[in-house]
Amino acid sequence: MKIKASAVFFIASLAPSPNSTRAFSSRASRRVAATSLSNRLLMSSTVSANPLLEQEGLPKFESIEPKHLTPAVEELLQKLEQDFASLETTFTKDGSDNELNLDYDQVLPAVERIQAPLGYIWGVAAHLNGVKNGDELPLYDALEAIEKKTAVASDPPFVLQQKKRAIDNSLRGMRLGGVGLEGAEKERFNEIKLRLAALSTNFSNNVLDATKAFSLSVQTEDAYKLEGVPDSAKAQWANSHLQFLKSQQKKGEEVAELPEMNPQKGPWRITLDMPSYLPALQHIPDRELRKEVYMANLQRAS
């Protein structure tokens, strides 16, 4: 089947990335929402025979088999070529200035509707290949077999070395993801992944808490320590100090009169939030002041 260059580029952009198996259900739901009614009607004649073409709701994993993949992709490639060519005919030019007379809804949503069914299939195939690789889709076993062949080759040429590197990288990624493990080892791997995810979340929360907890106030009498700092940074720190004073006032109590913000005379409040932290390291001339801010950032949650 011949496809014009623009369609080839368009189809190539649908290839799944190494991260395509992550959070598949949520992506599938978004793609399903984008699938047009016309696409669904076209697929209706083959839905019963090919569950990959039944794209309303979540994937029918219990019915999908490797034999369904090639026919589904071939059918959708043909449909995609037809729809893409039809879409191009709608890109008409305005006779007055010879410019395309289009709006947003005529382009990006239309492209999304065209690519959604094929993208859906790529996602299902990539997901199943990652979590339930079988004898009919033996990617892991095939790569291992090729790895053994290249491993015994003595002094391989440059091209073979590059192929071996690609194979090694692919297998490493699969093994780090748990592919190839069975039984107790697979269960233990999943336990470790869950534990690691929990620890990672807790650590991120601790880092965030430590970031919010730190502040360094520079009083008016120490204004010389900020000599040469841009006015924009001083204004930000002065405003941060004023907002901090406001946050300390408790409801129901008598509100003390707050001083006016003075970027030139201070006081100033420096925090570890990046918009405050980076100007401090870049512009503060006082070495000890920079060190205190830097060490606080370095030791967060440690």
What's the gist of this structure?
This protein has 302 residues and is mainly alpha-helical. Helices cover 58% and strands 4% of the residues. The protein has 11 helices and 4 strands.
Helix content, binned percent: 55-70%
**How many E-type strands?**
4
Count of DSSP-assigned helices: 11
Number of domains: 3
Order of strands in the sheet with most strands? 1-2
Low-pLDDT windows of residues: 1-47
Taking all residues together, what is the mean pLDDT? Answer: 76
How large is the radius of gyration?
30 Å
SS-based structural class? mainly alpha
Beginning-to-end CA distance, first to last residue: 60 Å
Shape: extended
GO biological process, one term: peptide metabolic process
Domain Oligopeptidase A N-terminal: 73-146
GO molecular function: metalloendopeptidase activity
Protein name: Oligopeptidase A N-terminal domain-containing protein
Furnish the topology, listing elements before pairings:
Layout: H1 5-12, H2 24-34, H3 37-43, H4 69-89, E1 93-94, E2 99-100, H5 108-131, H6 139-151, H7 158-176, H8 183-213, E3 215-218, H9 231-248, E4 268-271, H10 274-283, H11 287-298
Antiparallel strand pairs: 1-2, 3-4
Helix pairs in contact: 2-5, 4-5, 6-7
